[in-house]
From TrEMBL:
Keywords: Cytoplasm, GTP-binding, Hydrolase, Nucleotide-binding, Ribonucleoprotein, RNA-binding, Signal recognition particle
Subcellular compartments: Cytoplasm
Free-text domain note: Composed of three domains: the N-terminal N domain, which is responsible for interactions with the ribosome, the central G domain, which binds GTP, and the C-terminal M domain, which binds the RNA and the signal sequence of the RNC.
Record protein name field: Signal recognition particle protein
Amino acid sequence: MFNTLSDRLSESFKSLRGKGKLSEADIDATAREIRLALLEADVALPVVKDFVGAVKERARGAEVSGALNPAQQVIKIVNEELITILGGETRRLRFAKNPPTVIMLAGLQGAGKTTLAAKLALWLKAQDKSPMLVAADLQRPNAVQQLQVNGERAGVTVFAPEPGNGVGDPVSVARAGVEEARRTLHDVVIIDTAGRLGIDEELMAQAAGIRDAVNPDEVLFVVDAMIGQDAVNTAQAFLDGVGYDGVVLTKLDGDARGGAALSIAKMTGKPVMFASNGEKLTDFDLFHPDRMASRILD
Ligand code: GDP
């Protein structure tokens, strides 16, 4: 995803090689290159401005002595600033003191929520948790069945509404799912909710209704990193309409330019917690800002 950005950034450091000292002109020229590289990668403009401003300021104040030459010094600063905009520390899931921990997924249709639900469940199972999936996406035809299939692949229980059992609306399904998890001693409940192709009020109201009914420990906003700048707009709309604690970036294996991944934490003030990078259930992990920064600067 970050190939072009990586190439452009390493290109922008080239002119600094062999320099004994950073001049103001060197810093300006490099900052301009970095700015262009980020803009071309679709990073949101306010993020680019802050980023370049911080790099320039720090480069000006950088110590010339020491083990690092000017090029290495600038790379170190860019690395640290990348980690900062990506959210700094890895943010881990918070588990409830009294199980079950309730995790609600929200996001647009096609973002990868249903897939993510199963990936997260498998990942939790590997940590000796006993997750249960709840199919509260009653909007998209096949969503319930898809969650059941994915749940089976992950080897986890799926709670789904059955015709005639009295749980017909998503809020009731979510509530009944949490109750069922408590009764059957599952310690984590992951609730898959409906998305639409675009933002609409009914979607937000439904997600907010589920949130109010089950009082989740974590609401995760799931977003397709391939949709570029739109990811940031969608993230903001969900933040206003539903609210969430963290972001999951999906489809990081794609060939989009990566700007969404670089903008979203800074623009929303919410950490990216997980990254999904493929269609296999194991293509999933905690999001590590430092590793992502290293990958970009590799
Ligand atoms: P939902 O509508 O939000 O529940 O989205 P789905 O889970 O149905 O995912 C939509 C499509 O994206 C499916 O074809 C998934 O296989 C695919 N998908 C989900 N996550 C990833 C990912 O990380 N990488 C890739 N390449 N495809 C993904």
